Amino acid sequence: xxxxxxxxxxxxxxxxxxxxxxxxxxxxxxxxxxxxxxxxxxxxxxxxxxxxxxxxxxxxxxxxxxxxxxxxxxxxxxxxxxxxxxxxxxxxxxxxxxxxxxxxxxxxxxxxxxxxxxxxxxxxxxxxxxxxxxxxxxxxxxxxxxxxxxxxxxxxxxxxxxxxxxxxxxxxxxxxxxxxxxxxxxxxxxxxxxxxxxxxxxxxxxxxxxxxxxxxxxxxxxxxxxxxxxxxxxxxxxxxxxxxxxxxxxxxxxxxxxxxxxxxxxxxxxxxxxxxxxxxxxxxxxxxxxxxxxxxxxxxxxxxxxxxxxxxxxxxxxxxxxxxxxxxxxxxxxxxxxxxxxxxxxxxxxxxxxxxxxxxxxxxxxxxxxxxxxxxxxxxxxxxxxxxxxxxxxxxxxxxxxxx
Length: 404
What we know:
By secondary structure, this protein is an alpha+beta fold. The chain contains 12 helices and 12 strands.
């Protein structure tokens, strides 16, 4: 395989300037930047995809045009003049949250797998074992502390010696987050039985059709914005600045995967497709993911890594193998210079500009990756840590919460 690099450049409007100041002459030509692009890819490895990187910068500039000013010791003549900053500035993207290729690629495998379970019925039934403990602990906490004060502190509520903080509430919260909340969600999906099965049958027909099954999964979208004031774009021939310089970056990531049947020549009847669809949609097999969900405290590893996605990606109820997958990332940043101010005599116009910077990446993957990552502590995960802390302590002694 050979790495190939290609570039393209298109220049924008050209202009001239002439400046006379106390006997000193400065004159010349300028070219507004237009479009510049580069593409790096790999040749060979057909029919599989290769890595691809595309960078493109596009300028749209309103030059300072047809301006003349004269005086006893001063002459300035501008014709389609491009301010200096636009000719020298290298544009880029704002800082966005970091990405994990391994994690996102594994999510693509898991979400596009024709064997994925919409409702893991076996695991859901296993979660029923939490019901008696959940009801007992929650009821006990409500009797001890009152219904209203079990889950929140009301205005004016005073607690002395927070030894009464109930472990039952912590147990109930964890049982809800990792047992009953997903279980109720599965029940709702079960009510839409026919739609899920018919949709999966359509996928399986494509899987056994010519070319196999190709699916796309939207992984994430991130954005960032920055606004600056009084950004100088020209300070040599004259003074001009933008009172509003706005930068906005948007990044989209998605993945595509192509799946082929394990037995391509094996004929599949409509009845067999229907059975496979039902088994896949409702997880009617003791798959590695089902076993994982039924292991006590398995959530602890799921909290720090996507082991569940890894197991889901390797589920193979219908007999299909991924023949190739790509992870695509498109980052687009728009730089906008508006509301121009200058020190030129008269009414010079122009100077506004917009620059669009785009980066497109394609990264092929051949298999799911088991990875570990330190999670961001959002509100839900912080609550889980708090519930675990309550479970592992005897309360919070010598504390007092007083509303003033």
